[in-house]
Amino acid sequence: MNSAIYAAGAVCWRVVDEKIVILVVHRAKYGDVTIPKGKVDPGETLPQTAVREIQEETGLSVALGVPLGVSTYPLASGRDKIVHYWSAEVSDRAIAQSTFVPNGEIAAIEWVTVKKARGYLTYERDVEILETFAKLVDEGVTSTFALIALRHGKAAPRGDWNGNDASRPLTDRGVRQATTDAPTIEAWSPRRIVTSDAVRCVATVAPLAAATGIKPKREPGISQDAYEEGRALVRDIVGKRVRSRKTAVLCSHGPVLPEILREIALATGTMPGAYLSDAADLDTGGFSVVHLSTSNPSSGIIAIETYEPVA
Fold this sequence. Notes:
single chain; alpha/beta; Nucleoside Triphosphate Pyrophosphohydrolase; Rossmann fold; 2 domains; six-stranded mixed β-sheet
């Protein structure tokens, strides 16, 4: 059986004259109207692909929002194409800095209402993704931010380390995990990086800090030492991040992550459940992206995405 072709894209949206409009692209080669998307390049993750393809097709720099689902359909070659979609709010700044010009692939881009898009998009599979987005609009949770719970990369085993636990460094694999995590996490455009003060956590966020120019804030209150000694400040730290309504990374430890996810749920009025344990059960270098409403965080967790480490 032929292997599937993977692709990624997003429903790009903004508010014009108090109405939500979405971006559609007119493809020159196929003569169709569709949602911007494109194939995964070697070594890319799906979130990276979505952001890159939107930049290339529309000239717009975006940050990903809530996941909207997956479309699977057969190609003429007999292979399946599997496309992952997110929402992506387009800022006024991104519009002003757009580099789009008509080209051999995209003849034109157009902003249309959700209602118009329903009958305008060429493919029913695109309309299905649009309907998922429309539900967010109806619920008033279109504009979102994310709290990204990141487990540090693989560290030197306790038994092989002579210093104290907090000083354990990353292994070579851990360094690779930290390096490969950074460009994927960048797809959500974090504004803050908060990390346990343990060496393995600080080192894990170093590549992301270098890529984004964000100076990490070291918080002993989400360290493993503080957690094990009963002096953790997870509730205070999570509460501050929820109140700020800005996408942030929280880098911590395996035993602390369940508490971080639980406190996100409590801070947003979300009913607890097994899904929180699943989101916190991360391998080293793994992370979960928790999506919350910007306008009303107390409306609860909208979606959670979990990513395994690439390395």
